Amino acid sequence: MANLKTFFKFTQNIWIYLLSLTLASISQEFEYDIESLIGDNLDLISEHTQTLRSGDQIYDSHFYAADFLRDFNNELRQWRHASAQVDWNYKTNLTDSNRNQKLKIDSDFENWWRRKLKEAKKFRQEALPETFSRQLAMITLTATSEKNDLNRRRDFILSRMEAIYGSTKACLTRNSCLPLEPSLVDIMTKSRDPEFLKETWLQWRNSIGPKVRPYFTQLIQILNEAAVENGFSDYSDFWKQDLFFNTSTLDATIITLWTEVKPFYQQLHAYVRRKLRERYGSGIIGIDGAIPAHLLGNMWAQHWPNILDIVSPYPELNQQPSIEARLRKSFNVHGMFRLANTFYTSLGLYPMSSTFWDKSMFTKPRDRNVVCHASAFDLYFPGDFRLVFNLRPFTLESSIHNLLSMALEKLAFLPFGLFLDIWRWDVMKGKITEENYNKKWWEMRLQYQGLRSPVPRSEQNFDPGAKYHIISNSPYISYFISYIQQFQMFQSLCQVSGYKGPLHKCDIYGSREAGRKLKHTLHYGSSIPWQDQLEHLTGSKQVKSDAILEYFRPLYDWLVLDNIVHKEKIGWNEAEINWIDE
């Protein structure tokens, strides 16, 4: 089961990677496509393209398109490597020098891209093979402005917000001023003092939000201006097309998925609410149905497994302290990652490279400010993948206790993963304005998560800015999709491995058949539509919730019965946000 949880973490990243993979990272696959279409006689290609380098006819030529794409991919890989390197340098050492270097490389990279973009737009895609036209369509899908000043301002704002996020500390009455990682996160994870949790929750938001709010407003204006310049209605229109290429049904798909899993979430929410009320009293957990957002073991209330000791129906099975102590004694941080690496190699997947082990930042350094949000970096150079990580506690799963632990991690996240980008898309569309940023944020948190602020909030605050993905302009809807999709993938791999039985008991450790299936799917990268890759792996082009519901079915049935026995109200229709107008 521990292997299964590791697999889910891994497949979540796989899915996000598949959907957002850049053209550079799959250029080798595209180059194979080019050679399969025109052969490998490069002298012939060069000779032919030289004869065509006049007039518009060259933009119908398979040979010239192949030549252009080959050069583009080779150059793009170099630019991506340079950009990723300076991004890594900056986020692992937040100095002005590193920021300026990052801004310089990003600006040069963007200028190169715009030059290539102009030529790519000249090709008549309908006259070219599908593999060529697909690449050209991906290249020309952009929301980058032709105005250098606008792009420089955008990059400055993003780097400034990330610097603020990485260096901000919250000052608490019983402690000195503390950084988010690991100090504030540890408090939210481990403390069971509701007043201390409230203060920690509040001071982080009050420390970060007002600082980044004006930058966020400027960023949205810049992004939208550039998107409109490129023919999009707003930046969210571009973002959806860029992230989920040729997926016109995205909005309908995510709402359908949420509608299907919402009844399960409501049962989990009701059960957790009762357990918190038993722990903290009805004076803190009211009767209107909403849960205060500071009591769920996470700074953002996006994952809840850290309160398993409070909500488990079988607390004697909560072995977290003893297991964690044994693991810390037996493994350092590197050891934990090597254990995970062993699982993947047991499937026949490639081991991580020596560069990964040598250059990743596994623990937070003491001598400098860094962005310590767990992140994976593709340096776009063979074998150069790196990780930023801070060791966090985890729990062991088995039976209802263990399914509950998994649900607190996976199912509890779904409404957060959904609403964050729905809120941001509405900001980009102008449906939410600077005048009601925070109010709409809390209205959506209540609508989707059934959570509210533990203290009154107003438009003087900017609580979205407390989340890294908001200030870094990182898409979030992929997490929502991935948390559902990974169960669909896992179900398919269990079938390939020959397993027969309850899905939640499947373990694919050591299954080379499952590994081959997964590896074959992954090797396509972005060279074919993600729907085709999904069909190859699962037999369906549709993202479906069937597998996640099947996996948790024993827990769902148990929750329904337990909530009936305790006469716990399902939902939070009577709840209101904790709000004051100023």
From TrEMBL:
The record's SUPFAM superfamilies line, in alphabetical order, gives:
Metalloproteases ('zincins'), catalytic domain
Name any one GO molecular function: metallopeptidase activity
Where is the secretion signal located? 1-29
Where in the sequence does glycosylation occur per the annotation? N93, N111
Q: What is its EC number?
A: 3.4.-.-
- Record GO biological process: proteolysis
Q: Give the required cofactors.
A: Zn(2+)
Q: Does the keyword Iron apply?
A: no
Q: Which Pfam families match?
A: Peptidase_M2
Report the record's disulfide bonds: C171-C177, C494-C506
Q: Which family does it belong to?
A: Belongs to the peptidase M2 family.
Q: Which PANTHER family match?
A: ANGIOTENSIN-CONVERTING ENZYME
Stated name of the protein: Angiotensin-converting enzyme
Gene encoding it?
106059089
